[in-house]
Amino acid sequence: MKTLIIFSHTYWNNSKVNRKLLESIKDFKDITIHNLNETYKDNKISKDNVKSEISLLKEHEKIVFQFPLFWFSTPSLLKEWEDTVLTDILYGSESKCLEGKTFQIITTAGGEKSFYDSLEFGINTILSPITTSFKYLGLRVENPLCIYHANSDNLDINEYHKYLR
User: Fold this and answer.
1) What are the backbone dihedrals phi and psi of residue 155, each rounded to the nearest 5 degrees, phi first?
2) Which listed site, 41, 99, 110, 118, has its alpha carbon 20 to 30 Å from 90?
């Protein structure tokens, strides 16, 4: 299955955890890493970029959002990608182009799992605006992977790889 990882990190230059995760899969032939911070260094996704983004989505069967959780949400560039690309899909001529594909979130969080579990809601509720958007477009949504207490010294790379397969 061809997998597309759409990645964003507000502080990409200082990333340790996500950089290590992405580095571990850079040679996987069936995975494409699309680093929005490298592609859009000015943090702007123009209408001119949308067609290439949609083409990239159409080439893959599984779409993964990977990002560090910031204030219980995505980095701003990933949210802009959602607003720009998904809106164009929904209201464009190819509104069904993602139907039947698979979507998943892989996120890193600085806090312990017990912190998120102690809230009135858990990680699935926090991520539900994103997963609902993809369900609405006809994708099958898989359970997310949240790497809690993310630290580059204690990463379970095998668990990460398992979620990508």
Assistant:
1) -75, 140
2) 41
Is 5:64 a contact under the CB 8 Å cutoff? Answer: yes
Q: What is the pLDDT of residue 80?
A: 96
**Which pLDDT score is estimated for 150?**
85
3-state secondary structure the chain: CCEEEEECCCCHHHCCHHHHHHHCCCCCCCEEEEEHHHHCCCCCCCHHHHHHHHHHHHCCCEEEEEEECECCECCHHHHHHHHHHHHHHHHCCCCCCCCCCEEEEEEECCCCHHHHHHCCCCHHHHHHHHHHHHHHCCCEECCCEEECCCCCCCCCHHHHHHHHC
- The Cα 74–Cα 123 span in angstroms is 13
CA–CA gap between residue 125 and residue 157 (Å, rounded): 25
Q: How many residues can be counted in the chain? A: 165
Q: Are β-strands 31-35 and 3-7 bridged in parallel, bridged antiparallel, or unpaired?
A: parallel
Contacts of 96 (CB under 8 A, 6+ apart): 138
Residue 140, phi then psi, degrees to nearest 5: -85, 125
